[in-house]
Write a structure and sequence with these properties.
Oligomer: single chain
Structural class: mainly beta
InterPro entries: DUF5074, Haem_d1_sf, Host-pathogen_enzymatic-act, WD40/YVTN_repeat-like_dom_sf
Shape: globular
Protein name: YncE family protein
Number of helices: 2
Number of strands: 32
Strand content: over 45%
Organism: Pseudopedobacter beijingensis
Pfam families: DUF5074
Amino acid sequence: METRFLRIRKITSYTFLSIALFFSSCKKDNEEPVIQIQPLTEHEAIGVYVLNEGVYSSEIGASESSITFYSIKDNLTEQDYYKKVNGQSLGVNANYLKSYGSKLYCVVTGTEGDQNSYVDVMDLNTGKSIKRIVFYVASSSKMPRYITFDKGKAYVSAYDGSVSKIDTSSLNIEASVQLSKGLEQLVIAKNKLYVANSKHPFYEGKANVVSVVDLNTFTKVRDIEVDTNPTGLTLSSTGDLFVSSQGTYSDTWEFQNNASVTRIDVNTDTKKDIYKYNSGKQAVSLTSHNGLTYAYGEGVLKVFSVFDGSLGVDFVKDNTSIGYTNELTIEALSNNVYISDSGDFSAGKVICFEKNGKKKFDFIAQAFPKSVAFKYLYK
């Protein structure tokens, strides 16, 4: 009996095992395949956000800023777009607009001694404000100026000499490093943050250096001396950092004809060349992307050579009239060039050119249009 029972139990076990394997095999054959979700990528720019600095008002002691939205697909422009979407004004003295991931970041400098300095974070698709990250403590304003991004972090320079690190998921400030007052533009290369220390009449700092911050420790490792009043930084196709120095002005704000660009090797953080531009025009600002570099400013809009620092041919090839180029932005997918033209300073416009210098379209913005960011169609 015991032997027979064990034999039956053994046979039964094999039977159950076979049935289990059969159904398991059927399940594997019939189950739906696991779909790997791929992240969406930008297909084409379908809209343009424009930050307008606004006209200075003596009543409020600042410039009321705004955002214009232009639909490329529909050829429609909406002025005061931020206010329409959010039911409140953007703020005063806004300085920079840039997108990262699914969000749009606007740096609102505000005014000294007021609680109106912040970074307004918006949904890139709708323009709806998600959070205002404050840059003031009591009556002490940091006066933020520019923003850049790297590996899920945002870095914001400020006139008070600080650079703040923001987590782009939580939108909280994680750390801060103190440099010299009057900070302007900043870029990232070789896991280092480069920050321009400008010559500002109200925020007196070193005024002639680019500070280098190690992103691993978030501490300053050195200052690189450049010509007076550096404000703009751009990385070129050669891998070098180019620093635009505005030079000096007289007491009546007349340009002293001493603009320059310094070329820095980011591997060694040493100066390689300094290019002088004594053209009688306001200092040259530079923008680079995908091997293209352009120089612009008052009366200047030219192709810039990253090899010898020369100002080459005029960029515009079809006689399109441009007043004052307040800023130049290159759209990453098409390499189209967007010129923010201040015009007569009461109302401006944005002109889109193909990379060959021929105009594609333009649209009216508000006073002193500056940086632009793009809304994309994804695939």
